[in-house]
Amino acid sequence: MSKLSVVLGDYRHGQSLLDGSVQVAGYEVEPVKVEPVIGAYRRMIRDLEFDVCELAPTSYLMARQTGVALTAIPVFLNRRFHHGDVQCGTASGIRFPKDLEGRRVGVRAYTVTTGVWMRGILREEYGVDIDAVKWVVDDDDHIEGRTPDTVERVTDGRSLGELLRSGDLDAAFTGNAGTGRAGAPRAGWAATQSPEQTGDEGPYPLFPDAEVLSADWYLRTGIYPLHSVIAVRSELVDKDPNLATALYAAFAESKRRQLAADPEWSAVPRFARQAQQIGGDPIPYGLRANDASLRALVRFSQDQGLLDADFPADPKDLFAAGDYPDA
Predict the structure, then answer these.
(1) In terms of Cα–Cα distance, which of 173, 170, 174, 168 is closest to 154?
(2) What domains does the chain contain, in order, with CATH numbers?
(3) How far apart are CA 124 and CA 127, in angstroms?
(4) Each residue's pLDDT tens digit, 121-148
């Protein structure tokens, strides 16, 4: 039986695949632990180090465009809305999205998927000229070479959180996309002190009613931001055309078992909350259920200069050939 090295983040709905209770037909899964899992993205893209690896969707699309020998299956282990991801500096005076124009905004790296989603929202929903924003980064992109002139690299060693607290940034993304970590992905990087962790009088959200706005946006557009796609080394799929279908079926079964044990997602409150926002499955797999989201991510990435204008927008062209029933 062939072995598959597999790297995933810590997801309850993927655990059954990793622990062997759900099997990939014809294969033995060998889990590989990388913390944080974002640290595996670069290793997969640059060195094809693993057989199967979770990737950021934008990184996967960019890798595909540049000819990296990766393909994917339409399994999206993580989903998030992003209206709540931008915090404004205490003295910035920012009150409306258009106020970001001409300002300095921190984001871990320009191509981080959270940034792509939020810049797309700012431009399409609120008319923000994202090219009039100075994007300040403190980490490398997984795939380099598409950085616009509006990006500035931190050179003095300070974190985005420190820059936001000092007033050297007017706004910044939160969490792993910004102030919730410092530097490149490494063990313990999320333990760094950040504005949202200090409890001091400090940054405030650009959108105080973020959950309401996110739900409204979803209901109007059908777009539910994707995070974490499952990528596979292309040579494995070329060698075994059934692998993509077998992998998809295993991920779907692993999710089904988690849902049977916890149908309300009580163990993952964020997914429970998002299920209420969208009125359905908080992590849908497959092509049909994710058509609008995939097309939007391609459109946003093209608009931001990360993908070429002729990059395929049809979701079926983005994944390995296989059988992908909604799951």
Answers:
(1) 168
(2) 2-80+224-318 (3.40.190.10), 86-218 (3.40.190)
(3) 6
(4) 999 999 999 999 999 999 988 888 788 9
